[in-house]
Specification:
Layout (H helix, E strand, L loop, with lengths): L15 H11 L4 H10 L3 H7 L8 H9 L1 H11 L2 E3 L8 H4 L8 E5 L6 E5 L6 H16 L3 E4 L5 H11 L3 E5 L13 H10 L1 E4 L11 H12 L2 E4 L7 H11 L3 E4 L10 H8 L3 E2 L3 H8 L13 H8 L5 E2 L1 H8 L3 H13 L3 E3 L5 E3 L11
Parallel strand pairs: 3-4, 3-7, 4-5, 5-6, 7-8, 8-9
Antiparallel strand pairs: 1-2, 2-6, 10-12, 11-12
Length: about 375
């Protein structure tokens, strides 16, 4: 096949098989076609014919191959994305071996190789859920693991940000196409992820968010990693869908135990009852990934122990509540909070309350 204008992939000429896969996507191919092509191991069009698909069913894909593939690749290239398939190289090996592998992936950045873990959870994460996601992602990334998630609000976003802050790599799997950041407030986060890892989507450039895209997206998250962690999830949530898909693929699934009084803990607690492994700290996760890690959790000492006792992990407190608990004046508490906020060990919530982050309650910059 001749060179495709605007295609900025890893090769100068897009392989015929990669072009046929994109043509099938443009022709509206669904799960049955994806599975047939994934199992065929040869030329995509030929795999469908050999698999008993009527030749007429390929008509739309053949038309797309002649008239649309070059335009789509050109548009993706303008946005800084490239089309990755098993034929081009760069397609995740674990994902290729799943029951329903994508025909191909649009990728911005580069999907890192090495141990990987998916960290998923509620969009409405509690302070506890955010702290756990931050701790796990930070420790995993610092130890050399790739953190994979869906760039949604809540646990996903915390996992990505924490991996970046630890100087590690992270991959975000989108439910939209290249050029459509969702949620829109994560545009800056998307830039950071792209610089240190990759943005990934199986949807055509410009595809808007649609409800059914996110369960489809979840199979990619589950398929890319050997280990998945569910931090928080309601009884009916995308995180539980991802966990089920991971179990179906034989992946290791961890669930973070939570309060029986919290709706956000119903999901992981249910997974535990069904046989998922409880995750009690970063050390267990790193052991599963075959990595050596750092602290294994927050550490506090000296004066910081006082703040830690008044500000338990996973809870938030107002300045007034902390002053009462510590027996200190409000100005004194504010000075302590400012010191720890600058050190990154506490964070101010939108309602003015404070919570601990996953970082150590350590000395401030001037101590």
């Amino acid at each position: 096949m001749p060179p495709v204008p605007g295609y900025h992939g890893e090769v100068d000429h897009i392989p015929q098989g990669a072009a046929e896969r994109l043509a099938l996507l443009l022709g509206g191919a669904g799960r049955r076609v994806r599975r047939a092509v994934g199992a065929g191991g040869g030329e995509p069009f030929r795999s469908l014919v050999d698999g008993g698909f009527p030749p007429a069913s390929l008509a739309a894909a053949r038309d797309a191959l002649q008239g649309k593939v070059a335009a789509v690749l050109g548009r993706a290239g303008e946005l800084g994305w490239r089309w990755v398939t098993p034929e081009t190289g760069g397609y995740p090996e674990l994902l290729a071996a799943t029951a329903d592998p994508p025909l191909g992936l649009f990728v911005a950045g580069s999907v890192p190789k090495g141990p990987a873990v998916a960290i998923v959870g509620s969009r409405r994460a509690t302070a506890y859920g955010r702290q756990v996601a931050e701790l796990l992602a930070r420790e995993a990334a610092a130890a050399g693991a790739v953190v994979v998630s869906g760039m949604a609000r809540g646990v996903d976003a915390v996992a990505h940000r924490s991996a970046l802050e630890a100087g590690g790599s992270t991959v975000a799997v989108w439910g939209t196409g290249p050029g459509r950041v969702y949620p829109p407030e994560h545009r800056r986060l998307a830039g950071g992820i792209r610089a240190s890892g990759a943005l990934v989507s199986e949807y055509l450039p410009g595809t808007p968010p649609r409800r059914h895209h996110f369960p489809e997206r979840n199979r990619i998250i589950a398929g890319m990693v050997p280990v998945l962690v569910v931090v928080e999830a309601a009884a009916r949530s995308g995180a539980l869908v991802t966990a089920r898909l991971a179990l179906d693929e034989g992946r290791e699934v961890f669930a973070v135990p939570g309060s029986i009084l919290s709706e956000s803990s119903v999901g992981p607690n249910t997974l535990l009852r069904l046989g998922a492994r409880p995750l009690l700290g970063p050390r267990e996760l790193l052991d599963e990934l075959g990595l050596r890690g750092g602290s294994g959790g927050p550490v506090a000492s000296g004066r910081d122990d006082v703040l830690g006792a008044a500000l338990p992990a996973g809870e938030s407190r107002s300045v007034e509540e902390l002053a009462t608990a510590l027996g200190m004046s409000i100005p004194g508490v504010l000075n302590l909070l400012l010191e720890q906020e600058m050190a990154g060990s506490v964070e101010r919530e939108p309602d003015g309350r404070y919570r601990r982050t996953g970082r150590s309650l350590g000395p401030g910059p001037d101590r």
